[in-house]
């Protein structure tokens, strides 16, 4: 391996989103949603036959390697093993008053918005879009239940800026700050409608 590259072992746990297939329809990569980013992970050839059983939303553990090119800054992931993680089944109905109260309380996290901070998205205003999302969530009282995160390239550079809204994995392109209140209302309709444009404050994205 070249001295300009660093190779390390990885173990990444996350939510399987979709396959990236070749011209023959065979899976070559997977998209995996971890805590703060979406990773595109290449599959080892012997692993490609065993992956079609995965379904969007499955929780998995990826074991493999990461190559970091120090000259270009490019990072490549490759999986040699993928383990499906079983989600525990609920243990019957709660009977205590505390448990009953927890059933009626709203979930702390109802969604997540991932905004690309790379390449064309950065050049076309992803910083302003990020700030508009953050401020809109605060103004509509959603900052504690809907998280906004910066992520790597979402592979739709010609349609920048790009974002993905979870949990329904809705992809939005050509975003502008003035569109954000409508987008929030579309995905989280319990929020009050926001009038007018969001006033933006300066923000800085880190590569």
What is the CATH topology classification name of the largest domain? OB fold (Dihydrolipoamide Acetyltransferase, E2P)
Order of helices and strands: EEEEEHEHHEEEH
Largest sheet: 5 strands, mixed, barrel
Relevant CATH superfamily of the largest domain: Nucleic acid-binding proteins
Shape: globular
> Under the CATH scheme, which architecture of the largest domain would be assigned?
Beta Barrel
The number of helical runs is 4
Q: How would you describe the oligomerization state of the chains in this entry?
A: single chain
How many strand units? 9
Q: Regarding CATH, which class of the largest domain?
A: Mainly Beta
The N- and C-terminal alpha carbons lie at a distance of 26 Å
């Amino acid at each position: 391996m070249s001295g300009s590259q660093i190779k390390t072992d990885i173990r990444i746990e996350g939510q399987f989103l979709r396959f990236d297939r070749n011209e023959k329809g065979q899976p070559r990569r997977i998209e995996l949603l971890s805590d703060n980013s979406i990773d595109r992970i290449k599959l080892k050839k012997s692993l490609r036959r065993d992956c079609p059983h995965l379904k969007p939303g499955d929780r998995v553990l990826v074991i493999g390697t990461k190559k970091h090119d120090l000259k270009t800054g490019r990072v490549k992931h490759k999986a040699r093993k993928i383990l499906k993680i079983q989600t525990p089944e609920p243990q019957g109905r709660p009977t205590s008053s505390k448990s009953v109260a927890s059933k009626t309380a709203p979930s702390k996290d109802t969604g997540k918005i991932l905004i690309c901070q790379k390449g064309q998205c950065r050049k076309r205003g992803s910083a302003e879009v990020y700030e508009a999302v953050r401020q809109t969530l605060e103004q509509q009282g959603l900052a504690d239940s809907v998280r906004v995160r910066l992520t790597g390239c979402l592979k739709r550079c010609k349609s920048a800026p790009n974002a993905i809204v979870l949990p329904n994995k809705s992809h939005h392109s050509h975003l502008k700050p003035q569109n954000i209140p409508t987008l929030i209302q579309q995905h989280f309709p319990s929020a009050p409608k926001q009038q007018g444009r969001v006033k933006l404050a300066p923000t800085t994205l880190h590569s």
